[in-house]
Amino acid sequence: MEKPTAKKFFTLPTAIVVLVVIVGLGLFAFKFLNVQPDSEKVACNELPSAEEVQKVLAENENVIKDLEKLSDTNSIRFSADTERCPGKADILIYYGTESQRRQIKEKIGEKFFGVPYRMFNV
User: Fold this and answer.
1) Does 70 lie in the same domain as 91?
2) Do residue 66 and residue 13 come from a single domain?
3) Which among 11, 53, 100, 109 is most buried, taking Cβ atoms within 10 Å?
4) Over the stretch 17-32, which tens digit does the pLDDT of each residue have?
5) Number of domains in the chain
6) Angstrom distance (rounded) from CA 104 to CA 64
7) How far apart are CA 82 and CA 51, in angstroms?
8) Is 30 in a helix, a strand, or coil?
9) 104 and 93 in contact (C-beta within 8 Å)?
C-alpha cells in the first residue's frame, strides 16, 4: 500500500476548505476580538493648546470621575497627550472593555467638551 504524498493529499477541494477556514477565522478575529478604531489623530495645527486641554480636564473632573465609575477595576483613565505636538494636546482615554468604550462615547460624543480625544484599550 502506497503512502499518500503531499501532492495527492493537498487537492483543490482541500485547498478551498483550508482557505475558507482561514478567512473565517480572520473575519471572526476582526469582528469580535479586534478593538475598533475609535478616532484618528488630529493634525497638530488643529489641536488646542496644552493649557486649554489641561483646563478642560480640570473643569470637568466630575464628568471624568463619573466615567471612571463605569469600571470597577480602575481601567478607565483620562490624560492629556502633550508630547506628540509641542505646545498642543489632545486627550487620551484608556478603557478596559468594548462596553466601556461604547458607554464613554455615548456620554461624551465626538469630542470631550470641544477637545479631540483618542481611545485605547488596555
Assistant:
1) yes
2) no
3) 53
4) 888 888 888 776 655 5
5) 2
6) 10
7) 9
8) helix
9) yes
> Which residue bears the cell 480640570?
58
Domain membership flag for residue 39: no
CA 46 to each of CA 9, 88, 107, 115, 117: distance values in angstroms, whole numbers, following the listed order? 59, 9, 23, 10, 12
Task: Say how many residues make up the chain.
Answer: 122
Same domain, 20 and 73: no
User: What are the residue ranges in the chain where pLDDT is below 50?
Assistant: 34-35
**Do 51 and 69 fall into the same domain?**
yes
Provide the domain limits for residue 71. 44-121
Q: Please give the pLDDT value at position 117.
A: 95
Model-wide pTM > 0.85: no
* 38, 44, 45, 51 alpha-carbon torsion, rounded to 10°: 100
In which order are the strands placed within the sheet that holds 90-95?
77-81, 90-95, 117-121
Give yes or no: residues 49 and 99 share one domain: yes
